[in-house]
Amino acid sequence: MKYAFPDNFWWGSASSALQTEGAREGETTWDYWFAREPNRFHNGVGPQQTSTFYQHWKTDIQLLKQLNHNSFRTSISWARLIPDGIGEVNPEAVDFYNQVIDELNEQGITPFMTLFHFDMPMAMQEIGGWENRDVVDAYARYAQICFELFGDRVLHWFTFNEPIVPVEGGYLYDFHYPNVVDFKRAATVAYHTVLAHAQAVRAYRAGHYAGEIGIVLNLTPSYPRSQNPADVKAANVADLMFNRSFLDPVLRGEYPADLVALLKSYDQLPACKPEDGFLIAEGKIDLLGVNYYQPRRVKCRDSAVNPQAPFMPEWFFDSYEMPGRKMNPYRGWEIYEPGIYDILVNLRDNYGNPRCFISENGMGVENEQRFIENGQINDQYRIEFISEHLAWLHKGISEGCNCLGYHMWTFIDNWSWCNAYKNRYGFIQLDLATQKRTIKKSGEWFSATALNNSFDRE
Ligand code: BGP
């Protein structure tokens, strides 16, 4: 069967500043944490050892061209642009991003820009990070500066990438700095992130820029073990906490009443100001980026909650390991392709079918050198992963879902948060020692698919 996509479908990939650029003055929480606890990072490889996009941006953009990308998302590093988060703008950073943006446009690759992809300037974290409303204001100023500097040539902006992840990692589950475990502080961080998002949207609208503004959310469809009301209730709570906590404010302009009531009943609500509601209502977006890697399967709890233990989302559900699930064993994530379709249908039926695109989807695999044939990684598994997801996405589009594109994570194998270079995701293999780039089989497959705006599959 031939899977053909709508005209002007966005084909591309995503990356982020901290994971690719290297060579930076402004310190982020990652640099700080790595200097103190290198043991937390796979093989002790930290955020300064990246795929050197700062040096190789021009030739890397040639590679994007070779992959027939018509669009590409990366992020601006707040700490590179404004090293202390709030003060002077670094002119070298302005030059760098200008060159990258201009070159992308010249090559016919539409730049999609994220303003915050997990990389908090350390100076901002020192004053409390997202727990402090001054940081919200500093972010809004940074966003405004970006719009003024680059808004004439960047027409697709994203305020945040996966804003729930720093909440989970930094304030609940101990996989990002500052390694706090405290639900109320997590809720405050999430709430202030929504306020920061809304302030940036407000600034963008006030500037009457030519483009559009959105956010990138990692949506994890929550599937109950069974239709037993206890399992369904558990899945609903997981959905409220991990999806709707951001999805509702950015698409509906308000929080789900059930989530507010739940947090209130456990005294976990963040401090709100009366005017916040108006700001949040102004934060409605033009375009939603959906990152999809894995579903979330849940069941009702098997045991009673320990009242002495910290309050956690898991007070309301247990993870459910569905027998026969397909796993990516390297990352430990389930692969469930219909999830991409379920997300799109949910957006269509419950959120007014917003303009959206798949902004990340991908498969990290360890030790890919074992698949080298004639000097090239033959990553057939990745081609299958992509084509199966694309088939479900195609079904969604044919049923009226407003999905405008598909971006893979990622372009060139890059540094990943705590996993460093353990799992490789790229269309292009990176030799860490020499920085040599070699296109994988999946890169060739994607390049042909983008060129034809279609692919064939049995
Ligand atoms: C997403 C992030 C990316 C990227 C990707 C792969 O959550 O937006 O930055 O890292 O996941 O995940 P990981 O690197 O943790 O394997």
Query: How large is the count of helical segments?
Result: 15
Strand order of the largest sheet: 2-3-4-5-6-8-13-17
Bound molecules: 6-O-phosphono-beta-D-galactopyranose
Poorly predicted runs are: none
What is the helix content?
40-55%
> What is the average per-residue confidence, as pLDDT, rounded to a whole number?
98
Total strands = 21
Q: How much β-strand is present in the residues?
A: 15-25%
Give the radius of gyration. Answer: 21 Å
How far is it from the N-terminal to the C-terminal residue, by CA? Answer: 6 Å
Tell me, briefly, the overall form. globular
Would you kindly provide a written description of the structure presented here, covering whatever features stand out?
This protein has 458 residues and is of the alpha/beta class. The chain contains 15 helices and 21 strands. The chain has helices at 17-20, 29-36, 53-66, 78-81, 91-106, 122-126, 133-150, 164-171, 183-206, 229-252, 257-265, 276-282, 338-350, 380-398, 441-452, and strands spanning 2-4, 10-14, 71-75, 110-114, 156-161, 212-218, 222-224, 287-291, 296-299, 318-319, 327-328, 333-334, 356-360, 365-366, 372-373, 376-377, 403-409, 423-424, 428-430, 437-439, 454-456. The chain has an 8-stranded parallel beta barrel with strand order 2-3-4-5-6-8-13-17, surrounded by 4 helices. α7 runs parallel beside α9, α8 (164-171) runs antiparallel to α9 (183-206) and α9 (183-206) packs across α12 (276-282). The longest helix is centred in the middle third of the chain and has 24 residues, at 183-206. The protein is globular, with a radius of gyration of 21 Å. The termini are close together. 49% of the residues are buried. The chain binds 6-O-phosphono-beta-D-galactopyranose (BGP). 6-O-phosphono-beta-D-galactopyranose (BGP) binds at residues 16, 19, 161-162, 165, 218, 291, 331, 360, 364, 409, 416-417, 419, 423.
